[in-house]
Amino acid sequence: MSYGIKRFFLLTCCLACSWSGLEAKIDLQVVRQWKKLEFNFPNDATRKTAIEKRFYVPGKCVPIDMDFHDRQDAQKSRIFVTIPRFGEGCPVTLGTVDDQGHITGYPDYSWHDNQGKNCKGLTSVYRVAIDKCNRLWVMDAGKIGSKQHCPPQLLAFDLSSDRLVYRHVVNASNYVSTSLLITPVVDVIGTSDNCKDTFVYVADALGFGILVVDVANDRSWRVTHRFMYPYPSHGSFKINDDSFDLMSGVFGMALSPYQRGRDRYLYFHALSSTTENIVSTKVLRNDSFLQNPNAEPRSIKVLPGERPNQSAAEAMDRNGILYYGIMDPPSIWCWNSATEFSPRNFHQIAVNRETLQFASGVKVVNNRKGEQELWVITSRFQKFLKGTIDSKAVNYRIHAAKIPNLFACSSCPNSPKSPHIPTKPVIPNTEFLDETLECDDLLEV
Ligand SMILES: *[C@@H]1O[C@H](CO)[C@@H](O)[C@H](O)[C@H]1NC(C)=O
Ligand SMILES: *[C@@H]1O[C@H](CO)[C@@H](O)[C@H](O)[C@H]1NC(C)=O
Ligand SMILES: *[C@@H]1O[C@H](CO)[C@@H](O)[C@H](O)[C@H]1NC(C)=O
Does some domain include residue 98? Predict the structure, then answer.
């Protein structure tokens, strides 16, 4: 693209941005969309059996999370989706999406069959994470609906061979009967290539805690703190014309970028809340939680500002910019973690009442060119909850955009620094900031 065209494109885009409130603006591109989910079965016989046993009931499943595996060479890149089993009818709980949007069980269908009776396979997966060591981390809650069929387990697959390389079955002392282990975030310690030295922090949405898995030593512990609970004042949700109540604890989680010689920070928030919390991962990695899960009251901090309303998912890029969805109005936002967590530093990336409802999966993906991309999965989850899903309308969408392109219309990376940063700031990479063109400059052309 010539410089002139690029500037014209950015100018057009910026003009659209300045008409805030106009909902025609969509900066994210829809990569896949579904009215209802369609599945590939190994053969007609397995499909028939799945329907007979009500393992497959068309129109019954909602995708909640996704990740994108961009591959080198001739191998096709893959989109992973998770489909938690809230009840009967979902033939696979983790799969890859083909060009037609059909979902194939990962790593193969046998892992998904015999639902509730196959604890060596997958029972119900809410969220996944791909790490820098080419592993797909899968958190299996072990529950179908509210029944715990199998112990929760954390698995890792090597994405080159699609072989299982790690399985940690969570011991009964580390979860409670209401637990719902949903969100894994992966901390490969240091810059070394020692992929074994890894910790995984997992949100327990309904057990109100965080599970810490020490992969090198194959052990885990539970951490609890009052910030992991839902806030009754934020237990009512509104998405367009639908209202519903949910009291969910820690749900959205993101890790700060790695900085040499420092521990990362874990950002996290409860679904039924408007706040954001921060804890040094060093605190979480302390194995004295094996004796006592209660975190020191002051070891975890709540950031001072609040979001206008609830957020289901978040992710952070390598420059310390946090991306998250907001329920009402359905929208995607960013916040530069080097600034105060306050509405004046929250920037809207996209808003759309139709396409951005309930953003339950937000991921920062490293593509094969070394660029970062923002991926988001949205659904009419509120309609699903209320049993009013209309399978003639588009209900689920996966969106994506290159992060530098998003910044053409957002001042996130350039937010003024706060004089009173409450926590140790992540220093954004300034080289990257210099490359970003600001809308204001362009409007003066
Ligand atoms: C596993 O859980 C059981 C039951 O809560 C407990 O007695 C046991 O000590 C735990 N084992 C480990 C290794 O934590
Ligand atoms: C681990 O936690 C215990 C109990 O809170 C504390 O006494 C100890 O200093 C901590 N260790 C580290 C390395 O932070
Ligand atoms: C969410 O925040 C927006 C903006 O402040 C507000 O208009 C809306 O009423 C809020 N919704 C709920 C359910 O609180």
Answer: yes
